[in-house]
Fold this sequence. Notes:
By secondary structure, the protein is α+β, with helices and mostly antiparallel strands. It contains 4 helices and 6 strands. The protein has a 6-stranded mixed beta sheet with strand order 1-6-5-4-2-3, with helices on both faces. A hairpin with a 5-residue loop joins strand 5 (about 130-135) and strand 6 (about 140-145).
Amino acid sequence: MKKRQIGFELLVFEDTSELSQNEQKLLHMAEQARENAYAPYSRFKVGAAVLLENGEVVIGNNQENASYPSGLCAERVAVFQAGAKYPGVAFKAVAISAASQDRVLQMPAAPCGNCRQSIMEYEQKQKSPITLLMKAEKGPVYKCTSMADILPLAFNSSFLSDS
Length: 163
């Protein structure tokens, strides 16, 4: 038996003023998108903004449904919209902003497993990393320089074919 440890580097910024102007703008767009989230059941609103290589930004927010599996997370709304509207254009970064209607969040919320897998698919397809920025209403900003960092041992197309 061999034992292997898998880890990653997480950059933690005390506030957005430590980020680049572009990163600040992207997070602000995610915050604005969050405000229009439809979250009457969880009361947990999330906004996402995807920065594309061509400079376009595509936003999304979580959309819940009384039939819970029918809803969709903010990250996948934004990522799938970006993929549909700008096919073949690489993703540079995804910003996520989360807030609870019941309490003030002090720590960023990371994407769920489905969202990690969905974003990772684009990173694998474009063969270049996608930066991830995460922020709550208060507290620090988390930054990962690649989706692969937060989804080690990711499932990918190599498992589905011999090529």
